Amino acid sequence: MNRIYENLSDPELLNLLGQEKQAAFLCIYKRYWSELYRCAFKIAPNQKNCEEVIHDVFLLLWNERELTNINSLKDYLYIALKNSILNRRDSKINLLKTPNSKPLPASFETEAEEHFSYPELNEIHDRDLERSAGMIPADDEQKKVTLG
């Protein structure tokens, strides 16, 4: 990798990434991969799953390189990591859902939600998840949380 890129700040790398500079992407990847891996491994200690989640995060960054206006690269990556973990958790819940399924154990909940302060969004997400899994009766619509 070009040493010039290693000394650039995150905003400078993002600017070059928007210009489709692969060297800037590679620098971002090398700068944040191990940090994101450690965080993901704390949440889901499975090497293969962690690598897949991080792959998703960097794929998203590359695919949205021209569309996003990222103020903080580190925040963007961690939020993308959280969302990727939650999406994988949701897909596993949907795969495990059967007519006679039991609620998942509390240990299935990820630590990712504790690292981010989005209580309203997490509450909405959890209620939607429970409702879709049939854990909350449909007449419990009175307690909807709205964003405004």
UniProtKB/TrEMBL annotation:
In terms of Gene3D superfamilies, this protein maps to: 1.10.1740.10
Q: Which GO terms describe its molecular function?
A: DNA-binding transcription factor activity
Query: Domain of life of the organism in this record?
Result: Bacteria
Write down a Pfam family by its short name.
Sigma70_r2
**Biological process GO annotation list?**
DNA-templated transcription initiation
Q: Which residues form the RNA polymerase sigma-70 region domain?
A: 28-89
Protein name (Swiss-Prot/TrEMBL): RNA polymerase sigma-70 region 2 domain-containing protein
User: What are the top taxonomic ranks of the organism?
Assistant: Bacteria, Pseudomonadati, Bacteroidota, Sphingobacteriia, Sphingobacteriales
